[in-house]
Amino acid sequence: MEKDDGEDWVKAVRRRLLAWYGEAKRDLPWRVDRDPYRILVSEVMLVQTTVTAVIPYFERFLRAFPDFEALARAEEDEVVKVWEGLGYYRRARQLHAAARMVVESHGGVMPDDPAAVLALPGVGRYMAGAILSQAFDRPEPILEANSQRVLARLLAWDGDLKAAATKSRLWEAAARLVPPRHAGEFNQGLMELGALVCTPRSPRCLVCPLSAQCEAKRRGLQDELPKVGPRPAPLAVSEACAVVASQGRVLVVRRQAPGLWAGFWEFPTIHREGADPAGRSFGEPVDLDEGVRRLTGIRVRSGDLARTLTYSVTKHRVALEVYNATATTGEPKPGPGFSEARWIEPQGLTELTLSSAGRRLASAVAENPAAWGLE
Q: What residues contact residue 312 under an 8 Å CB cut-off, 6+ apart?
């Protein structure tokens, strides 16, 4: 710590932040109690997702799986379907695996030992600290997007937030600041302050409870800090898919594990150009008709371009061209990387587990089958 970051400074930060959080905290569904299951579910959902977006998914998930035992008993497909729409589906699978470990290794009760919590699938240092402090009031630090911004400004730390040295420095600060009692409230207060007051742009220093302790504010650097390196441009991807019609039904395939969208259903899709995050390339260029045959065993005759969908996945930006197609011969047989290929009624499409782009296309097909030759 800096020379002015002594015990009086630490005590002032703790006291002021706890008092502010007690008055200003938002009424969020995972804060109704200190149930470690609810805390774990919320923290997994909040990774790379905003609080506002998470709330309806959290409530739906808790209705389906109210505790560790219910989640552990569920099939993975059920869990992913309930999670559908939140994205980053690996989180859902890790949460499911964590619930099974809690049930199998800890009798359905979340352990309060740091090593045991860190051993749960998908749980890293931040999430372990959040669970241990909020559920068990253990003085474990946290560091995530909001809290690291608050800490960087408090210390006037001008290193790149993405740098290892910065992460190490801010973890040290978080560890020193977390109090021996009310650790969960303090940690939530750090995150809440970053979300509501110490925002990325135009921080509201006039109403900040820590403005008197903030070195960035004292130096007039609050609008310049923290520093974050430029985000790389997304990698372009070009794909094409076919909505294949036959006797009023549409052709779909299911992806195998592992890999992106494992277990998800989709319309037969091929890679065309650019990066290939979903591993769709055949190793050689093929047209859409040949690609569909290799993926499904069905020979098709594709028609006009029906629409183009764009979507983002990880660090990629995908342009997906969608074509009408008609089946000519063959029986559904899944190709490499797929576990199933089948015909399905248009109205059944929305019951399948699909990616966000897949859901958009499925809804369009189900709402107007005739436009896709499904009469």
A: 234, 318
